[in-house]
Amino acid sequence: MAVEVALAMLQRDGRWLMQLRDEIPNIVAPGCWGLFGGHLDAGETPEQALRRELLEEISWQPNELEFTMVHHIHRRTAHVFHSELSVPLEQLRLLEGQDMALVSPEELLSGSIWSSHLGSHRPLADGLLDVMQHVLQRQT
After folding, report:
1. Domain spans of the chain?
2. Which of 10, 22, 70, 114 has its CA 20 to 30 A from that of 94?
């Protein structure tokens, strides 16, 4: 049975908010860049789970979330939502992860993103490039 997650594609001024995941071996994609979000708890809808996760991870959530797509990879089903990031990056509090950044589409499509906190490039989580390509194609 696939694990269900809800993920947020948050955009501000043409850039996308990304989370550099912690280096914990038993989590999904340790040390890789991904979208904020997480697992659905029992009885939660994907949107409810995403709102909870955003508050837990960055202490903020958007007023509106637009469902974008479902993405399947390995044994994970991701419910992907899109919204505008209506506050500056500096107003977010990173409560989970090593770093966060607003990233251009070109940086995303390169397959790795610079972490100013670590001082190095880190790869994207599995499947993130597929999701981003799908969304960026829809915007053009």
Report:
1. 3-137
2. 70
